[in-house]
Amino acid sequence: MDEKELKALVSLLDDDDQSIISHVEGKILSLGTSAIPFLEKEWESNFNPGVQQRIEDLVHTLQYHLVKERLADWYSGKDLDLLTGLWIVATYQYPDLELEKLKQHLEQIYYDVWLEFRDDLVPIDQVKVINGVLFSKLKFGANTKNFHSPGNSLINVVLETKRGNPITLCAIYLLVCQRLKIPVYGVNLPNLFVVTYKDPLHTQFYINAFNRGLIFSKSDIENYIHELHLAPRDSFFEPCDNTEIIRRVLRNLVMSFEKMGEHAKADEVKVLLVDISDGGDLGV
Predict the structure, then answer these.
(1) Between helices 263-275 and 242-259, what is the axis angle to 10°?
(2) Is the entire prediction scored with pTM above 0.70?
(3) Is a pLDDT exceeding 60 seen at residue 279?
(4) How far apart are alpha carbons 248 and 267 in whole angstroms?
(5) Considering the domain boundaries, does residue 281 fall inside one?
(6) 42: helix, coil or strand?
């Protein structure tokens, strides 16, 4: 379909007949994301608020379908790269966000840590070096003032503001550790996400990125679980995979939108969560 035909279709969004509008919207949606640049151009040149709103809704629907497709491809793939998953989630709010930009930002953080990192240090001292760079030098930290902001679950926002929630701060921590080739993994705790250093020599301890990299032990987790009156599970102590990390990011995003009263967005993100769930527990 050429630009002239598209323009004619968009002009029909001003029709009084709802059946015609529905037909036109279906036709435009069938064109896929290739129609987005034209729709955005038409929105700028159109001064009818009703038509502008319909164009906005069409663009959002097309962008949302793209997020769903990307997430489905990620979930069905073999790689399950963490940064790619975080990027896909962030494109729900920031459709034009480029993965390469995120990679460059994280590469700079890795380089800042690498300059002070030493392979000959014992694991706890290696972690202390990482903590020093991330939380003292680069000033990453907990967003306690706006804990329920959706931005806390969006990797690009956290990288820019240096404020996040437990899982996004842990995700940045994990990505840096992956580049350093040290065995640090995510751990799914109730109401909290942490990371664990676990190597083949049976060295294991835990790190709370939300609390400036506080180092703690398995017994501390046992006490935490006991205080919550929960039965211990292996998943509270052992590494989780990247799929579970992305599920948790999506759960946090749902909660944030619900807290803000943006229920339509919360419902859309719930669908994304179901798309990458295996029928297990979807709770926080």
Answers:
(1) 170
(2) yes
(3) no
(4) 16
(5) no
(6) helix
